[in-house]
Write a structure and sequence with these properties.
alpha/beta; five-stranded parallel β-sheet; Oxidized Rhodanese, domain 1; 6 helices
């Protein structure tokens, strides 16, 4: 009988310690997971220049020399220092990324997501779609 009481007491104490020993860790996910959103030209254009949003062109310098979206910062995705420069960007802002077709900027956006940037927009179709829409607007 005594051994049963000791066993029950030991179980109760272990359960008490197990439930109290749980750590609550604050992670970026607590505020909501980082998000990457692929958007079209119209929505992308509406977001450019809005508060706390930064426009970034991830194309190569030779691609950029053929034209770019006004106001875009240049950050060559293929450059040797892309990752370190990307990690040094402020995480309290939202980012609008584009490349030629949306592929590299999509990859860059997902890298930023893994680094904890809260909101990154990728121009689906890239600069090709952007210039195609401009051509349509002129007609």
């Amino acid at each position: 009988m005594k051994s049963s009481l000791y066993l029950l007491a030991a179980i109760a104490i272990s359960l008490l310690f197990c439930s109290c020993g749980e750590k609550v860790v604050s992670t970026p996910e607590a505020a909501g997971p980082p998000v990457v959103k692929d958007i079209g030209v119209e929505e992308f254009a509406k977001l450019i220049g809005t508060k706390d949003r930064v426009l970034i062109d991830v194309r190569t310098p030779s691609e950029i020399s053929m034209g770019k979206i006004p106001g875009a910062q240049e950050l060559d995705f293929n450059g040797p220092d892309f990752e370190s420069k990307m990690k040094s960007l402020a995480k309290d802002k939202e980012y609008l990324l584009y490349c030629r077709s949306g592929n590299r900027s999509g990859q860059a956006a997902r890298m930023m997501q893994k680094e904890g940037f809260p909101m990154v927009y990728n121009l689906d179709g890239g600069y090709l779609d952007w210039t195609n829409q401009e051509d349509k607007a002129v007609q």
